[in-house]
Design a protein that fits this description.
Order of helices and strands of chain A: HEHEEEHEEEEHEEHEHEH
Structural class of chain A: alpha+beta
Distance between the termini of chain A: 8 Å
Oligomer: homodimer
Shape of chain A: elongated
Number of helices of chain A: 7
Chain lengths: ~240, ~240
């Protein structure tokens, strides 16, 4: 509890955040809530593939340097590398554009984003490396040029171990089985971690669907979460009073 | 020449068009100009792939129904089917969009265009059929839905056989070797064919590059084309006077 003694002299003792899981893990475990161990390390890139814009009707298949066809092959490589990793690693292409972007013109340029995350920063960086190597090989085989720019590099943000134990105790106190999981999504706790120890509680997410109008939390689960948060705050108060 | 006798009573005797080839054939043959046999049959589709939009950080790879990853696999199938055909067949995806289109959201929808052309309408339709079957199989394997709407179906527009002979003669008359080729691109002749017999002359295109600011015709080739067009018009006039 030494950390909290020190924290008493700081403006914030601790930061507590409850959030919908935005993923499928708690639902798959049949659990209403879980203790978050931390926020996954994120890497984001912007990729630009350049080929040769040309007439779609007159340029024979063998003579094409189609930037979008190259980008499509790269997307599948990114998906395959993430799928082949059996851990929590995920990789996503969420945005893509082809230019000039006309039905009758072979795209001369393709642009897309790459988002890579894992609770384990080493695993994340290893996957990023494998992806960049695969993309370069595809560009080279197709006579395309590739520029990949990092636009976002967020280190992992672990939750405070003592607060995690306190959260587990509060969960048990609410009659629920304790369970720990990592957060693939970024949260406010990530920013607050610079100021004070952080704790997070995840709430079960219907069908694991998020960033979508169908995102849903069961009110009964929210009530359990509220009970756990109150239990957590009581325990934190007691631990401070006990010093 | 019976066609031209009839045509004399119509407002237009014939339609003559010269155009940059917009492709690599004449350059590869070392020729300045060539007689066009007709305009290739075109088919154009709009494809919409629907999956499940979700959070890029929290949705494990195995649980995704990524519409853009599916679209990428479809693009490569389209390219492969066109490449495997050894004829003049071409197929192109020139435009693509993913929605919602954010770096941190798995795309719930992918939209793209498909353009398929061949001088041989039967070959074009066979390729279109193979593409639609391949796309359906990819959608089904990935738990995606696919809607493909035809947006453009242009039959082949052959040039007039007698006028092609006249063009060949005019090319020979200008001291050039006669050569015939099909047009993968659509041209005004395609529209004029409804009114009168059409003839087209193609001019060599630097590096086969078109629909691109680098599109270029050598002025010397343009002069040869002008000479051939004058020769063609003289021959047409003589054929009419001879009746």
């Amino acid at each position: 509890m030494r950390g909290y003694l020190e924290a008493r002299h700081a403006p914030a003792l601790a930061y507590l955040e409850a959030h919908i899981e935005q993923g499928p893990v708690l639902e798959a475990q049949g659990l209403a809530i879980g203790t978050v161990t931390g926020i996954a390390a994120q890497l984001r890139y912007q990729a630009v593939v350049a080929g040769q814009a040309n007439h779609a009707g007159t340029t024979t298949m063998g003579l094409r340097r189609d930037a979008l066809a190259g980008a499509a092959e790269m997307l599948l490589a990114i998906e395959r590398i993430a799928r082949d990793d059996a851990s929590d690693l995920v990789a996503t292409v969420g945005r893509i554009e082809a230019s000039p972007g006309a039905a009758n013109v072979i795209p001369g340029e393709g642009r897309f984003t790459i988002d890579i995350r894992s609770g384990d920063p080493v695993r994340r960086d290893r996957a990023a490396q494998a992806i960049l190597i695969a993309l370069e090989a595809i560009a080279s085989a197709r006579g395309l040029t590739l520029a990949v720019t990092p636009i976002h590099d967020l280190p992992a943000s672990p939750c405070d171990p003592a607060l995690m134990n306190m959260m587990d105790a509060a969960i048990t106190g609410a009659g629920q089985p304790p369970f720990r999981l990592v957060s693939g999504a970024g949260h406010d706790a990530m920013v607050m971690a610079a100021l004070c120890p952080t704790a997070m509680l995840f709430i079960r997410c219907k069908d694991g669907v998020s960033h979508n109008p169908a995102e849903h939390v069961d009110p009964a689960d929210a009530e359990i979460a509220l009970q756990v948060m109150l239990g957590f705050i009581h325990r934190l108060g007691e631990s401070l009073a006990a010093v």
